């Protein structure tokens, strides 16, 4: 069965049942719910720090069912890196043993819900309960999580909450940039970009999205409240009036100035993604219900949160405890909530644990409210790797020690279950948004990075294809470094070795040197650190090497098992 184009619908119907994680038949998004009759839910990992995570874009991994490739016309083309290539849940399930052999005990997969025609990356949301049929069905996603759990692999799903697709334009700026505006500076009315676009019958009248609705009714007395937090962790309170509070979307124009705390929370990212009004309790109630439905219907183990720096903290203060409480009711005591921290540490300090602002560092003071995200993808270390290895500044090796101790002053790392400090940041060499480090710096430098993240505090994150030396130059955001492991024609003309481009072949080679090197690192990490049951596991002893270019550190989880790492960045 294939879901026909345009048949989007989030209330449960017999027609969309194969893809819907929601089982509520009424069109009341805040009351959507999920279920899996007769299923015994898989428990959470004892400690997320004990895992090694493998990241992949589902569309760029394995095509297990070609029947779902061309749900929409003119979007599937394996010759073009900007088109869909057919990867799906069925294909990923076939390759779980490959991931387990690498020593990774968790997978982070790209967003799963319905997206635009050619949004292979899955970040242009149309719906938050209907699985994109090009990735597979609800049954196939359940088969994937079940098979992963049988192999001891946990499943983390990338979730988007800040934005949806690019359906709205700002009145007066339909074809260009819309300057950011607030309040009596007259925010914009929203217009549909395509007058012929299909509209859905909703409780709010005809709407381009099934469950989130726009409204151009101006309220001169409404405000945004706050606080919201800027790049340096500074709080901003709204002291103006006038907005569109009955709309589920922001009407403020494009995000242009990332240093402005209001723009980063309300502006339209890239001028391309419709920004949800997440400070609204009405919108929060909808999204909470939808993410709870996803957990109940699929038995996943955690969320990686996209663009959390553009989400108001009061959303996380409601959503995170609601998600944890719901997961706990299913027997998942330590459901994972991790963010994309592509932002300064001062900013992600406000949304890690209970949160801290600069005046709270190194104290027992926190932002009011419950624990939010427990950790995230830590770019602070990445930039030290980048500077030391790509810009040939090996003296920046000392930055790792500085970043670690700085974060311990800034971050609240208390685990919401154990109430003990647990440093749960994700460290990485590559991901789906950047150039591959080995392409910019070289294979030896990349292996040095792998060794450091394997034993540094936190959770190592590996990006699909690194273990096979994929090395296409260019940004992953533009598709260049989002190669697939299955044979592909899209990168054939980009010769990166005398033999061509490695992504031109089948790359599920469990005997390749880099695969074996990564697997050995992960095996040593597991043997020496185990399940991270001791508070000593986060202790870091950085030794003076006598050379600014050499990083030397020792770690252990017990007195009889210690790891010493000597990393020469010269």
Secondary structure layout:
Blueprint: E1 53-56, H1 89-94, H2 96-101, E2 106-109, H3 138-150, E3 154-159, E4 168-170, E5 190-192, E6 200-202, E7 205-207, E8 228-229, E9 235-236, H4 261-266, H5 281-298, E10 302-305, H6 313-329, E11 336-341, H7 345-348, E12 375-378, H8 379-390, H9 399-410, E13 426-428, H10 437-440, H11 443-455, E14 459-463, H12 513-529, E15 541-543, E16 550-558, E17 561-568
Parallel strand pairs: 1-2, 1-14, 2-3, 3-10, 10-11, 11-12, 13-14
Antiparallel strand pairs: 4-5, 6-7, 8-9, 15-16, 16-17
Helix pairs in contact: 5-6, 11-12
Describe this structure in words.
The protein is α/β, with parallel strands linked by helices. The chain has twelve helices and 17 strands. It has helices at 89-94, 96-101, 138-150, 261-266, 281-298, 313-329, 345-348, 379-390, 399-410, 437-440, 443-455, 513-529; strands at residues 53-56, 106-109, 154-159, 168-170, 190-192, 200-202, 205-207, 228-229, 235-236, 302-305, 336-341, 375-378, 426-428, 459-463, 541-543, 550-558, 561-568. The strands form five sheets. Strands 12-11-10-3-2-1-14-13 form an eight-stranded parallel sheet. Strand 2, helix 3 and strand 3 (154-159) form a beta-alpha-beta unit. The longest helix has 18 residues, at 281-298. The model is unreliable at 1-7 (pLDDT under 50).
């Amino acid at each position: 069965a294939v879901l026909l184009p345009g048949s989007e619908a989030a209330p449960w119907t017999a027609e969309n049942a194969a893809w819907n994680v929601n089982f509520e038949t009424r069109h009341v998004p805040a009351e959507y719910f999920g279920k899996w009759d007769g299923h015994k839910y898989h428990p959470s990992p004892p400690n997320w720090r004990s895992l090694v995570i493998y990241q992949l874009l589902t569309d760029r991994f394995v095509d297990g069912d070609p029947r779902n490739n061309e749900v929409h016309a003119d979007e599937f083309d394996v010759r073009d890196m900007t088109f869909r290539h057919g990867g799906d849940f069925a294909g990923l399930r076939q390759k779980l043993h490959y991931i387990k052999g690498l020593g990774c005990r968790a997978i982070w997969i790209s967003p799963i819900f319905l997206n635009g025609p050619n949004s292979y990356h899955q970040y242009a949301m149309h719906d938050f309960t209907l699985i994109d049929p090009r990735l597979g069905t609800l049954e196939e996603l359940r088969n994937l999580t079940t098979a992963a759990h049988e192999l001891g692999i946990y499943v983390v799903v990338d979730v988007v909450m800040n934005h949806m697709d690019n359906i709205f334009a700002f009145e007066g700026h339909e074809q260009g940039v819309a300057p950011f505006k607030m309040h009596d500076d007259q925010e914009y009315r929203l217009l549909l970009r395509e007058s012929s676009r299909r509209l859905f019958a909703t409780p709010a009248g005809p709407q381009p999205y099934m469950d989130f609705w726009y409204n151009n009714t101006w309220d001169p007395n409404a405000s945004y409240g706050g606080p919201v937090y800027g790049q340096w962790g500074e709080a901003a309170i709204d002291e103006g009036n006038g907005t569109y509070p009955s709309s589920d979307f922001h009407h403020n124009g494009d995000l242009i100035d990332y240093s402005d705390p209001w723009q980063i929370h309300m502006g339209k990212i890239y001028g391309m993604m419709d920004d949800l009004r997440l400070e609204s309790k009405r919108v929060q109630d909808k999204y909470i219900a939808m993410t709870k439905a996803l957990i109940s219907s699929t038995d996943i183990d955690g969320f990686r949160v996209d663009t959390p720096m553009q989400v108001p903290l009061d959303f996380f203060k409601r959503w995170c405890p609601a998600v944890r409480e719901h997961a706990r009711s299913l027997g998942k005591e330590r459901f994972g909530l991790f963010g994309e921290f592509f932002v300064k540490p001062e900013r992600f300090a406000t949304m890690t644990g209970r949160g801290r602002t600069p005046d709270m560092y190194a104290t027992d003071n926190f932002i009011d409210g419950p624990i939010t995200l427990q950790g995230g993808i830590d770019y602070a270390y990445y930039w030290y790797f980048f500077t030391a290895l790509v810009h040939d500044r090996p003296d920046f090796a000392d930055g790792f020690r500085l970043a670690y101790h700085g974060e311990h002053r800034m971050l609240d790392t208390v685990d919401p279950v154990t109430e003990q400090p647990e440093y749960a940041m994700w460290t990485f060499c590559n991901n789906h948004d950047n150039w591959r480090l080995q392409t910019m710096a070289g294979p030896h430098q990349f292996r040095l990075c792998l060794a450091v993240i394997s034993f540094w505090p936190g959770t190592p994150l590996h990006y699909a294809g690194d273990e096979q030396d994929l090395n296409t130059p260019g940004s992953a955001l533009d598709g260049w470094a989002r190669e697939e492991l299955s044979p592909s024609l899209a990168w054939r003309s980009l010769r990166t070795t005398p033999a061509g481009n490695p992504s031109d072949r089948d790359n599920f080679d469990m005997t390749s040197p880099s695969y074996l090197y990564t697997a050995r690192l992960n095996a040593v990490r597991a043997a020496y650190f185990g399940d991270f049951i001791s508070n000593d596991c986060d202790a870091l002893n950085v030794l003076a090497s006598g050379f600014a270019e050499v990083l030397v550190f020792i770690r252990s989880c017990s007195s009889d098992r210690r790891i010493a790492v000597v990393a020469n960045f010269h």
